[in-house]
Design brief:
The chain is an alpha+beta fold. It is 30% helix and 34% strand. The chain has 6 helices and 12 strands. It starts with a helix and ends with a strand.
Length: 221
Amino acid sequence: MKTSSDLHNHYRLLLGLLPPWVVTNVDLKVDQRLVEIAVQWPVDHEVECPECQRSCSIKDQREERRWRHLDTMQFQTIIKSRIPRSECPDHGVKTIAVPWAGPNSRFTLLFERFAIDMMIAAKSIKAAAGLLGLSWDQVHHIQARAVERGLLRRKLDDVKHVGIDEKSFLKGHKYASLMVDIDGARILDVVQDRTLEAAEQLWQKLPEEVRGGIDAVAMDR
């Protein structure tokens, strides 16, 4: 016979949570087509300071936060938790990071990955928002966070040849300037307008050490 602890451990494994994170409750609300998963860090367990990774005691817990996760069957799934705050002698009181979501997001990383795939397939934020049941702003912010994560992982030390070109949008009434890595076939940056100032802005966005290693720049006259 399955017990509630079996169910909690089942969801902990599905979420990929490692101890000491535990699932304390799974609430199925059939009338709302909703599954709520309560996750907790034990209050008697030390935490790491997010600044220096030093083991610290828990100062307190923040108010409960909620994150949209991938659906369970046809039921919308929410993770909820009161996140501990570390008390570090060097950095003071800090909210610890959670493994299922990025900072300042109300969606889990897995849901955001699914939303990005949906945007790629739908080819527009508006269409993806309709399919996901989210607002345009929510999907736009998911896209912005994905770009930020990608930029943090991006390596530029192998860029040797770049191209600067223009791109029209909104039926040709607006223009943007793009800088691309010719050898790597990837966009490095985008700015508004198609002016000399826009091209200079793109160039200056590259770190100085990267600019010094570039052999050639191609652009229309």
